[in-house]
Specification:
The structure is a single chain. The chain is of the alpha+beta class. The chain has one domain. The protein is 18% helix and 31% strand. It is built from one helix and nine strands, in the order αβββββββββ. Strands 1, 2, 3, 4, 5, 6, 7, 8 and 9 form a nine-stranded mixed β-sheet that branches.
Length: 113
């Protein structure tokens, strides 16, 4: 009886360990994503996507955490492309601007539907 109980406990321990290590089931598929204002936004670093930042006093949030690049962010201020400490601001319900420090520029990110 004790061997059977030991085997059951070992199987359960392995199952719980593996499920705890799993990542977000939805994958980013190479997309640059940020969660802000309880919505998910997608952008890219192409030159035609760069934007001007008008009033620096209207910064709406700061990137405070990141997930792996193949994961989808799940909390506000979280990205899958790094940039910890960078700012973002709301342009509309459909668009935000994100400051990308390596490019020293603001880029538009559009709401994922």
């Amino acid at each position: 009886m004790s061997k059977r109980l030991y085997c059951i406990c070992a199987v359960l321990l392995i199952a719980f360990t593996l499920s705890g290590c799993s990542r977000n089931q939805e994958e980013a598929n190479g997309r640059m994503l940020i969660m802000a204002y309880d919505k998910l936004y997608e952008g890219n670093l192409s030159e035609d996507n760069a934007t001007c930042m008008g009033d620096s006093g209207c910064v709406g949030g700061i990137i405070v955490s990141t997930v792996w690049e193949d994961e989808v962010p799940t909390s506000n201020g979280q990205t899958n492309f790094g940039e910890l400490g960078s700012h973002y601001t709301k342009g509309s319900d459909e668009m935000i601007a994100v400051f990308i420090s390596e490019k020293d520029s603001w880029y538009n990110f559009y709401r994922v539907k």
